[in-house]
Amino acid sequence: MELKTNAALIIIDQQKGILHPRLGRRNNPQAEERIVELLGYWRRTARPVIHVQHLSRSADSVFWPQQSGVEFQDRFQPMTGERLIQKQVPDAFCATGLEAQLREAGIEQLVIVGVATNNSVESTARTAGNLGFEARVVEDACFTFDKADYFGNPHTAEEVHAMSLGNLQGEYATVINSEQIL
């Protein structure tokens, strides 16, 4: 893919809480390694990096602000000059000023990574596409968890991940893998 010099890397919810065992079985165990590789590439090429942090409104959430799970994992600590977006709902555009910051900076191409594929990643990518941004979702730099559907049928994290990417592909975003960038 052709990567613009000002393409923004949006890293969603790479906080300590996402590693909590109570969230259950996940897919893409190498996702964080891919995110670290992409982050390194963005930093080396001086492209914009945006860190998205979830501040939950629910006290039983792994992202509740009053405990350590809300903090970024050490390897994803924002560096000076990198943007921080704090959100209270899955969509990183909702009530955060993200769209205005991107427009002001003239950024049109977004590369989205993080967690969870079917939650914050999907909702952010949908909005990005709806707002006219050129959104890319890096499938091997995202992950999710086993989840039952509305009718109670269990689905593996791999199935949930695949369906979420299928929802996005072509309509809201282009799904790619990290090799296509690196």
From TrEMBL:
Keywords from UniProt, A to Z, are: Hydrolase
Q: Does the keyword Hydrolase apply?
A: yes
CDD domains from the entry? Answer: nicotinamidase_related
One Pfam family recorded for the sequence: Isochorismatase
SUPFAM superfamilies from the xrefs?
Answer: Isochorismatase-like hydrolases
- InterPro entries from the UniProt entry: Isochorismatase-like_dom, Isochorismatase-like_hydrls, Isochorismatase-like_sf
Q: Where is the Isochorismatase-like domain?
A: 7-180
Q: Give the molecular function GO annotations.
A: hydrolase activity
Q: Signal peptide span per the entry?
A: none
Q: Does the keyword Lipid metabolism apply?
A: no
The record's annotation in PANTHER family points to: ISOCHORISMATASE HYDROLASE (PTHR43540:SF1), PEROXYUREIDOACRYLATE/UREIDOACRYLATE AMIDOHYDROLASE-RELATED (PTHR43540)
What this protein is called in its record is Cysteine hydrolase
